[in-house]
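hiii, so i know i said id send this last week but things got crazy w the move. better late than never?? heres the sequnce for the chain we talked about at the cafe, plus the structure i predicted for it. fair warning i was half asleep when i ran it
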Amino acid sequence: MEAVPRKSPHSRLSELANAATVVFGRQGYRRTRTAEIAAEAGMASGSVFNYVESKEALFFLVFAHGFRALDEANPVLPIATPAQGETVALISQHLRKVETPCLTAARDNRSPDDPRAELQGIIEERYDMLEGLWPLLAVIERSAVDFPDLEEFYFRRLRVRYHDRFARYLEQRAADGQLRPVSDPTLTARIVDESVTWFAWKRHEGRDARKFDDESARKSVVDFVCSALAPALATSDHGDR
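okay and structure toks below
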């Protein structure tokens, strides 16, 4: 009988990081036990500590792995317990790097050739970011209550800053007659972002995970927002992007 090859430390560390992402993302930091993550990863509870020194190190691993900030080809094991504030600093560093080129370009362009296509680009870039990062964002949202610095950065600064920028964009384009005016741009920005967030992220966590295919979900929410806020369909072929 042919022997099953042993998995490399790199492979097992990646499996452990993925399992921790799932469990922390479902339960948050404080409610999660390392034994639950071990079970998700298919390893014995004690084996976890061959790869990480502590639960804090396991939480750090989630983001070091997710942001590709760890030399997993030659990992120094076990991963050390991070210094106070180190995990939040890592999260902040990488989420600040997330670019919004469409929204940034719109701020600098007062006369877009096609306002609907411009809005579509803004919504698509937000959708793509959320769809790509939602497993990590789920960990952040459900664990922020346990880390005041993370709560402050993510909910009171990062998200607020994006919503404010998007609201100013909506207000300016409406004032210029390029998008439909709304009674409250700040509230509208949140309505739009929550809709995008549900389709790009939240539906994956619930009973609707398999109800909509990814491409239909993306196209439908983008079309819905653009139809609601743009005065007319664009004559260009941007809608086929």
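btw The chain has two domains: 9-83, 98-233. thought thatd interest u
miss u guys!!
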